[in-house]
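step=predict obj=Membrane insertase YidC/Oxa/ALB C-terminal domain-containing protein n=247
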Amino acid sequence: MIQLFNVVLFQPLLNLLVFLYNIVPYHDLGVAIILLTIIIKAVLYPLASQSIKSQKSLQDLQPKIEEIKKQHKDNKEGQAKALMELYKNNKVNPFSSCLPLLIQLPFLIAVYQVFQRGLNAKSLDLLYPFVANPGVLNPVSFGFLDLNKPQIALAVLTGLAQFWQTKMMITKKPPAEVKKSPGAKDEDMMAMMNKQMLYFMPVMTVFIGISLPSGLVLYWLVMTLLTVFQQELVFKKQKKAEVEVIK
Protein backbone atom coordinates (compact mmCIF):
# COMPACT_ATOMS: atom_id res chain seq x y z
CA MET A 1 0.00 0.00 0.00
CA ILE A 2 2.84 2.40 0.88
CA GLN A 3 4.59 1.55 -2.38
CA LEU A 4 1.39 2.24 -4.33
CA PHE A 5 0.98 5.57 -2.55
CA ASN A 6 4.55 6.54 -3.43
CA VAL A 7 4.18 5.59 -7.10
CA VAL A 8 0.73 7.11 -7.66
CA LEU A 9 0.95 10.30 -5.58
CA PHE A 10 4.21 11.05 -3.77
CA GLN A 11 6.60 10.54 -6.68
CA PRO A 12 4.50 12.43 -9.29
CA LEU A 13 4.04 15.41 -6.95
CA LEU A 14 7.74 15.43 -6.07
CA ASN A 15 8.67 15.36 -9.75
CA LEU A 16 6.20 18.11 -10.57
CA LEU A 17 7.59 20.31 -7.80
CA VAL A 18 11.19 19.80 -8.92
CA PHE A 19 10.20 20.38 -12.56
CA LEU A 20 8.59 23.68 -11.61
CA TYR A 21 11.61 24.57 -9.48
CA ASN A 22 13.84 24.01 -12.50
CA ILE A 23 11.87 26.28 -14.83
CA VAL A 24 10.82 29.20 -12.59
CA PRO A 25 13.04 32.32 -12.58
CA TYR A 26 15.97 32.11 -10.15
CA HIS A 27 14.86 28.58 -9.18
CA ASP A 28 12.67 29.98 -6.42
CA LEU A 29 11.15 27.16 -4.36
CA GLY A 30 8.37 29.41 -3.04
CA VAL A 31 7.19 30.24 -6.56
CA ALA A 32 7.36 26.53 -7.46
CA ILE A 33 5.20 25.68 -4.42
CA ILE A 34 2.62 28.31 -5.39
CA LEU A 35 2.43 26.94 -8.93
CA LEU A 36 2.17 23.36 -7.60
CA THR A 37 -0.70 24.43 -5.33
CA ILE A 38 -2.55 26.05 -8.23
CA ILE A 39 -2.17 22.89 -10.34
CA ILE A 40 -3.42 20.64 -7.52
CA LYS A 41 -6.35 22.98 -6.91
CA ALA A 42 -7.23 22.90 -10.61
CA VAL A 43 -7.20 19.07 -10.62
CA LEU A 44 -9.39 18.88 -7.51
CA TYR A 45 -11.62 21.81 -8.47
CA PRO A 46 -14.75 19.77 -9.41
CA LEU A 47 -14.56 17.70 -6.22
CA ALA A 48 -14.00 20.77 -4.07
CA SER A 49 -16.93 22.58 -5.69
CA GLN A 50 -19.25 19.68 -4.92
CA SER A 51 -18.01 19.61 -1.34
CA ILE A 52 -18.54 23.38 -0.92
CA LYS A 53 -22.08 23.17 -2.32
CA SER A 54 -22.99 20.31 0.01
CA GLN A 55 -21.45 21.96 3.07
CA LYS A 56 -23.29 25.21 2.38
CA SER A 57 -26.60 23.43 1.81
CA LEU A 58 -26.25 21.48 5.05
CA GLN A 59 -25.25 24.65 6.87
CA ASP A 60 -28.36 26.45 5.62
CA LEU A 61 -30.54 23.53 6.73
CA GLN A 62 -28.97 23.29 10.18
CA PRO A 63 -31.71 25.23 12.04
CA LYS A 64 -34.38 22.92 10.60
CA ILE A 65 -32.25 19.88 11.39
CA GLU A 66 -31.93 20.97 15.02
CA GLU A 67 -35.67 21.60 15.18
CA ILE A 68 -36.41 18.09 13.90
CA LYS A 69 -34.01 16.56 16.43
CA LYS A 70 -35.73 18.48 19.19
CA GLN A 71 -39.22 17.45 18.05
CA HIS A 72 -38.27 13.76 17.77
CA LYS A 73 -35.72 13.52 20.58
CA ASP A 74 -37.47 10.45 22.02
CA ASN A 75 -38.20 8.82 18.68
CA LYS A 76 -35.03 7.99 16.77
CA GLU A 77 -36.93 6.29 13.96
CA GLY A 78 -39.22 9.28 13.49
CA GLN A 79 -36.24 11.61 13.65
CA ALA A 80 -34.38 9.69 10.94
CA LYS A 81 -37.49 9.64 8.73
CA ALA A 82 -38.09 13.37 9.16
CA LEU A 83 -34.45 14.16 8.40
CA MET A 84 -34.48 12.04 5.26
CA GLU A 85 -37.65 13.80 4.14
CA LEU A 86 -35.99 17.17 4.77
CA TYR A 87 -32.93 16.16 2.75
CA LYS A 88 -35.11 14.81 -0.05
CA ASN A 89 -37.29 17.93 -0.27
CA ASN A 90 -34.21 20.15 -0.41
CA LYS A 91 -32.28 17.80 -2.72
CA VAL A 92 -29.38 17.50 -0.27
CA ASN A 93 -27.26 14.41 0.29
CA PRO A 94 -25.82 14.60 3.84
CA PHE A 95 -22.87 12.41 2.81
CA SER A 96 -22.03 14.20 -0.44
CA SER A 97 -19.76 16.69 1.33
CA CYS A 98 -17.65 13.93 2.89
CA LEU A 99 -16.71 11.91 -0.20
CA PRO A 100 -14.91 14.73 -2.03
CA LEU A 101 -12.95 15.50 1.14
CA LEU A 102 -11.97 11.86 1.53
CA ILE A 103 -10.77 11.77 -2.08
CA GLN A 104 -8.69 14.92 -1.50
CA LEU A 105 -7.12 13.52 1.69
CA PRO A 106 -4.49 11.33 -0.05
CA PHE A 107 -3.34 14.39 -2.03
CA LEU A 108 -2.92 16.35 1.18
CA ILE A 109 -0.92 13.55 2.76
CA ALA A 110 1.25 13.26 -0.36
CA VAL A 111 1.99 17.00 -0.37
CA TYR A 112 2.86 16.82 3.32
CA GLN A 113 5.26 13.95 2.62
CA VAL A 114 6.85 15.87 -0.27
CA PHE A 115 7.69 18.80 1.99
CA GLN A 116 8.64 16.65 4.97
CA ARG A 117 10.97 14.15 3.31
CA GLY A 118 11.05 14.91 -0.39
CA LEU A 119 13.28 17.96 -0.46
CA ASN A 120 16.58 16.23 0.20
CA ALA A 121 19.28 14.78 -2.05
CA LYS A 122 18.29 11.17 -1.31
CA SER A 123 14.66 11.65 -2.36
CA LEU A 124 15.76 13.36 -5.56
CA ASP A 125 16.84 9.90 -6.74
CA LEU A 126 13.09 9.33 -7.32
CA LEU A 127 13.03 11.87 -10.14
CA TYR A 128 11.90 10.71 -13.56
CA PRO A 129 14.56 10.57 -16.30
CA PHE A 130 13.11 13.62 -18.06
CA VAL A 131 13.20 15.78 -14.90
CA ALA A 132 16.62 17.34 -14.36
CA ASN A 133 18.13 16.73 -10.94
CA PRO A 134 19.14 20.10 -9.45
CA GLY A 135 21.31 18.31 -6.88
CA VAL A 136 19.87 20.35 -4.06
CA LEU A 137 16.83 22.61 -3.66
CA ASN A 138 17.55 26.05 -2.26
CA PRO A 139 15.00 26.50 0.55
CA VAL A 140 15.40 30.28 0.69
CA SER A 141 12.49 31.82 -1.21
CA PHE A 142 11.86 35.42 -2.27
CA GLY A 143 15.37 36.20 -1.03
CA PHE A 144 14.57 35.98 2.69
CA LEU A 145 12.14 33.16 3.56
CA ASP A 146 13.68 29.82 4.61
CA LEU A 147 11.00 27.28 3.72
CA ASN A 148 12.69 24.51 5.71
CA LYS A 149 12.04 26.33 8.99
CA PRO A 150 8.81 27.34 10.73
CA GLN A 151 7.78 30.96 10.17
CA ILE A 152 5.38 32.51 12.68
CA ALA A 153 4.32 35.31 10.32
CA LEU A 154 3.35 32.84 7.59
CA ALA A 155 1.41 30.74 10.11
CA VAL A 156 -0.51 33.84 11.26
CA LEU A 157 -1.36 34.78 7.66
CA THR A 158 -2.64 31.25 7.10
CA GLY A 159 -4.76 31.54 10.24
CA LEU A 160 -6.27 34.79 8.96
CA ALA A 161 -7.01 33.15 5.61
CA GLN A 162 -8.69 30.26 7.48
CA PHE A 163 -10.78 32.82 9.39
CA TRP A 164 -11.88 34.37 6.08
CA GLN A 165 -12.78 30.99 4.59
CA THR A 166 -14.75 29.87 7.67
CA LYS A 167 -16.57 33.20 7.95
CA MET A 168 -17.87 32.82 4.41
CA MET A 169 -19.44 29.47 5.25
CA ILE A 170 -21.10 30.08 8.61
CA THR A 171 -24.80 30.64 9.19
CA LYS A 172 -25.56 34.23 10.11
CA LYS A 173 -27.41 35.18 13.27
CA PRO A 174 -31.12 35.83 12.52
CA PRO A 175 -32.32 39.46 12.47
CA ALA A 176 -34.32 40.81 15.40
CA GLU A 177 -37.65 40.79 13.54
CA VAL A 178 -37.58 37.01 13.15
CA LYS A 179 -36.39 36.17 16.67
CA LYS A 180 -39.81 34.81 17.61
CA SER A 181 -40.39 32.83 14.43
CA PRO A 182 -40.41 28.98 14.49
CA GLY A 183 -36.89 27.60 14.57
CA ALA A 184 -35.31 30.99 15.36
CA LYS A 185 -34.00 29.73 18.71
CA ASP A 186 -32.21 26.84 17.00
CA GLU A 187 -30.88 29.17 14.33
CA ASP A 188 -29.53 31.52 16.99
CA MET A 189 -27.84 28.61 18.79
CA MET A 190 -26.28 27.45 15.52
CA ALA A 191 -24.96 30.94 14.91
CA MET A 192 -23.30 30.90 18.33
CA MET A 193 -21.67 27.53 17.59
CA ASN A 194 -20.47 28.84 14.24
CA LYS A 195 -18.97 31.87 15.95
CA GLN A 196 -16.96 29.60 18.23
CA MET A 197 -15.77 27.57 15.25
CA LEU A 198 -14.93 30.81 13.42
CA TYR A 199 -12.22 31.57 15.98
CA PHE A 200 -11.24 28.03 16.96
CA MET A 201 -10.17 26.92 13.48
CA PRO A 202 -7.82 29.88 12.78
CA VAL A 203 -6.21 29.51 16.21
CA MET A 204 -5.61 25.81 15.56
CA THR A 205 -4.23 26.65 12.12
CA VAL A 206 -1.69 29.05 13.63
CA PHE A 207 -0.82 26.59 16.40
CA ILE A 208 -0.14 23.79 13.92
CA GLY A 209 1.49 26.11 11.36
CA ILE A 210 4.22 27.34 13.71
CA SER A 211 5.46 23.76 14.14
CA LEU A 212 5.63 22.89 10.43
CA PRO A 213 8.20 23.74 7.74
CA SER A 214 7.06 27.00 6.19
CA GLY A 215 7.09 25.41 2.72
CA LEU A 216 4.10 23.32 3.78
CA VAL A 217 2.46 26.33 5.45
CA LEU A 218 2.91 28.32 2.23
CA TYR A 219 1.07 25.55 0.38
CA TRP A 220 -1.65 25.67 3.07
CA LEU A 221 -1.97 29.46 2.77
CA VAL A 222 -2.23 29.48 -1.03
CA MET A 223 -4.68 26.56 -1.01
CA THR A 224 -6.87 28.35 1.54
CA LEU A 225 -6.90 31.55 -0.50
CA LEU A 226 -7.79 29.62 -3.64
CA THR A 227 -10.60 27.90 -1.70
CA VAL A 228 -11.93 31.30 -0.62
CA PHE A 229 -12.01 32.36 -4.27
CA GLN A 230 -13.71 29.09 -5.25
CA GLN A 231 -16.31 29.45 -2.49
CA GLU A 232 -17.14 32.92 -3.77
CA LEU A 233 -17.67 31.57 -7.28
CA VAL A 234 -19.82 28.66 -6.05
CA PHE A 235 -21.96 30.92 -3.86
CA LYS A 236 -22.53 33.36 -6.72
CA LYS A 237 -23.60 30.51 -9.02
CA GLN A 238 -25.97 29.14 -6.37
CA LYS A 239 -27.48 32.57 -5.78
CA LYS A 240 -27.92 33.12 -9.51
CA ALA A 241 -29.59 29.72 -9.87
CA GLU A 242 -31.97 30.51 -6.98
CA VAL A 243 -32.94 33.83 -8.57
CA GLU A 244 -33.63 32.13 -11.91
CA VAL A 245 -35.85 29.54 -10.16
CA ILE A 246 -37.85 32.32 -8.46
CA LYS A 247 -38.34 34.07 -11.81
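step=describe
The longest strand covers residues 140-141.
step=end
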